[in-house]
Amino acid sequence: MNYLTGTTLAPDYTQKIFTPGDFKTLVNRTAAKVRFLQKKLGVNTLVGCGNSGVPLVSAVSFKLTLPFFAVRKRVDGHSATRANGYLLAKGCRYLIIDDLISTGATMRRIVKNVRLEVDEDGAHKLPMPVGILLYHETFWGDDDGYFHVPGYKRLPLFYL
Fold this sequence. Notes:
This protein is α/β, with parallel strands linked by helices. It has one domain: Rossmann fold. The chain has helices spanning 15-18, 20-41, 50-64, 105-120, and strands spanning 45-49, 68-73, 80-85, 93-101, 128-139, 146-147, 155-159. The chain is globular and about 40 Å long.
């Protein structure tokens, strides 16, 4: 709810990002889950995309002193095309954090473009995606607990 006009600006789940009290709670819950995944998967870098992923990833990154990588979207707002932020270390193990997965196009493009970004710099050991953390708990697809990215192993899905 926009407190100035009384109108809804975004779907309910994005209010977790745009309302300060809810955002603080979301950051703390996400940070706790990332700490767990650091031990379980060896996560050492965070990746976010879009209006809800990037603010959350940058706040969790700051809280946990982990590097993060932001993936920008194309002008049409649908899918990731180029990454920016910290240069990913060669061989890093990154966790993608976002609100939901609908078609899967954004997740596939994040993995592809993170790889391309590092390839351009001549990396020998490419960054490895180790999982996806969804804070809205939504995956529209066959949820067997994994998300398939062609050319990679299935990435485990985690929820808050």
